[in-house]
């Protein structure tokens, strides 16, 4: 019996051909970048804090969860705006015209896109030698014994993000997550409570008792939405607050440890390294922009 198979051509709507740079910046509140223009695309994503962007003839304020895409050969400059920003910056070559549909505007990204940004950061740390907090970095250095296909995955994740954002622009609907704490009232209340009370000594049992749920039930709800346990989220929020205090430079590490109710400075340092992959001292040094 003859099989009547036929092939379907697959057109690549977004084709990223080269990676230029990948940075993750943790700037202080006084950061100012002099500005530049170049013949490749540049993406800026604000992970926390806020960033002022001058792009062409416009000025934009990007806040946590906002993204902006700079088209080639358009002058742009950035500086901290009120809160010290943590910024992911990716530059790349691409000839795909649909990117022009989303460039030059502030875009609020959803949790789906944020997860892909997290994957890009993880792959980039393993694939390349990344110089922290250096906006003058001009290229990527491949690590010896880098995992197979790291650059391919980064390119694919970036193309996926661009595809979702362009879809959102074409339907005039914001890109949104499949799930978020705002979609789940219990998760929203719990994470908001932890954020508001992160400078208090909290236990998982205390939080569950406060909301009137069993530990098993509430852990399942939170893990399903934010993909980390209550205790992990509590530590993440405390370390984010610790990073803020380190940037401000008014408290030493022991004072920060005490303020955030860690058992002792040594435990604070251990949790800080587990969350950020840096010691508090290494993190503080990384804030000194070259």
Brief characterization of the structure:
The chain has 290 residues and is of the alpha+beta class. The chain has helices at 111-127, 150-171, 185-196, 204-211, 215-226, 230-248, 253-259, 265-276, 280-286; strands at residues 16-26, 41-48, 50-55, 58-63, 66-70, 76-80, 86-94, 107-108, 128-129, 141-142.
Task: Please characterize this protein's 3D structure.
By secondary structure, the protein is an alpha+beta fold. The chain has helices at 111-127, 150-171, 185-196, 204-211, 215-226, 230-248, 253-259, 265-276, 280-286, and strands at 16-26, 41-48, 50-55, 58-63, 66-70, 76-80, 86-94, 107-108, 128-129, 141-142. It has a 5-stranded antiparallel β-sheet with strand order 1-7-2-5-8, covered by helices on one side. It has a 3-stranded antiparallel β-sheet with strand order 4-3-6, with no helix packed on it. A two-stranded antiparallel ribbon has the order 9-10. Helix 3 crosses helix 5. The protein starts with 15 loop residues before the first strand and ends with a helix.
């Amino acid at each position: 019996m003859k099989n009547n198979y036929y092939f379907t051509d697959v057109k690549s709507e977004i084709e990223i051909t080269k990676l230029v740079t990948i940075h993750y910046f943790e700037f202080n509140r006084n950061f100012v970048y002099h500005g530049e223009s170049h013949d490749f695309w540049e993406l800026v994503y604000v992970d926390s804090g806020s960033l002022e962007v001058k792009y062409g003839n416009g000025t934009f304020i990007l806040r946590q969860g906002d993204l902006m895409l700079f088209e080639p050969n358009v002058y742009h400059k950035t500086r901290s705006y009120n809160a010290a920003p943590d910024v992911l910056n990716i530059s790349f070559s691409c000839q795909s015209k649909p990117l022009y549909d989303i460039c030059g505007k502030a875009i609020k990204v959803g949790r789906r896109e944020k997860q892909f940004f997290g994957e890009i950061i993880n792959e980039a740390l393993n694939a390349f030698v990344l110089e922290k907090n250096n906006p003058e970095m001009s290229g990527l250095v491949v690590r010896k014994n880098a995992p197979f296909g790291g650059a391919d995955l980064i390119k694919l994740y970036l193309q996926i993000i661009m595809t979702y954002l362009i879809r959102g622009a074409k339907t005039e609907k914001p890109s949104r997550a499949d799930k978020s704490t705002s979609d789940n009232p219990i998760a929203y209340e719990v994470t908001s409570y932890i954020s508001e009370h992160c400078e208090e000594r909290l236990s998982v049992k205390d939080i569950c008792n406060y909301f009137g749920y069993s530990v098993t039930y509430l852990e399942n709800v939170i893990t399903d939405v934010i993909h980390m346990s209550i205790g992990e989220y509590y530590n993440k929020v405390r370390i984010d607050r610790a990073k803020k205090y380190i940037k401000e430079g008014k408290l030493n590490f022991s004072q920060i440890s005490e303020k955030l109710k860690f058992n002792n400075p040594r435990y604070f340092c251990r949790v800080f390294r587990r969350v950020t992959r840096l010691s508090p001292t290494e993190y503080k040094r990384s804030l000194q922009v070259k």
